[in-house]
Amino acid sequence: MVNYHHVYDQLTEITSVDNVMVDEHLKNHTYTRLGGKADFFVTPETYEQVQEIVKLSNKVDLPFTLLGNGSNLIVKDGGIRGIVLNLKRLTDISTDGTILVAQSGARIIDASRHALSKSLAGLEFACGIPGSVGGALFMNAGAYGGEIKDVLESTIVVDREGNLLNLSADDLDLEYRSSNIPDNGYIVLEATFSMKNGDYDEIKAIMDNLTFKRESKQPLEYPSCGSVFKRPPGYFAGKLIQDSGLQGKQLGGAQVSLKHAGFIVNRDAATADEYIGLIHFVQDTVKDKFGVRLEREVKIIGEDLVEEKNA
């Protein structure tokens, strides 16, 4: 049986007391504002600390979960057992000529803005993606005709055993909204992007236009996980949902956005169970009406909430 007090002592020895939280509400760390508690919520400051935490989880046989900035994620109401690792302290971004290097905890938006400041083209499409750099690699994030695989050169990851690996973009099997990162259990620490020299004003004009499109069409006024579904071949998910008469459909505090049917928003203190239930309802309704099964883009992790019964 795992001695949680001993694990806490070891975690704080690896990093610090300030970087280890016990029974932390994960709704504080997700864009949907959903999620139960994590046994341990750990925010390391160095690559070596990440390696040591992975090795510790293996040594004490404690479950281990990587949580990015929670933008494309739903955490269930029962939370997550074991160690939840968050890389929000790894946020450095730098350039050397046309090469841009960003740590995984940095926002991909900030990487695109840094590129702009150096008049480097290639990451304009990412100026409205709310995820972290690590999360962007995890799902080969994309928008407005661009995606991570177009510009990624290489990455540094930690594997399940705590080893540090240098991988090329080709090693990640990057496809539409997918990679082999989750299957291999990689933790992305750093990404290297190959950019092109460009004109500052032209790059900024593109980013301003994309930002306007995003802000005018997406329901940014409510918590959400972003676009819920992948684009089905030959269709648009939002159009299918809208044509199914589901815009505005509500389950508890979760609602299909009135602004963009491809989004489900946390309109009024929704639970993860309500949010996930509405996703399933949308999938079933669209399948019944159009014969198209919408595939989730958003990831769902964690445990269901177990209600305590009075003896």
UniProtKB/TrEMBL annotation:
Localization of this protein: Cytoplasm
EC number(s) per entry? 1.3.1.98
| Keyword terms, alphabetized | Cell cycle, Cell division, Cell shape, Cell wall biogenesis/degradation, Cytoplasm, FAD, Flavoprotein, NADP, Oxidoreductase, Peptidoglycan synthesis
InterPro entries xrefs: FAD-bd_PCMH, FAD-bd_PCMH-like_sf, FAD-bd_PCMH_sub1, FAD-bd_PCMH_sub2, MurB, MurB_C, MurB_C_sf, Oxid_FAD_bind_N
* FAD-binding PCMH-type domain ranges (all copies): 34-198
Q: Where is the active site?
A: R177, S227, E297
Provide the family line: Belongs to the MurB family.
* Name this protein carries in UniProt: UDP-N-acetylenolpyruvoylglucosamine reductase
Q: Give the organism, scientific name.
A: Virgibacillus siamensis
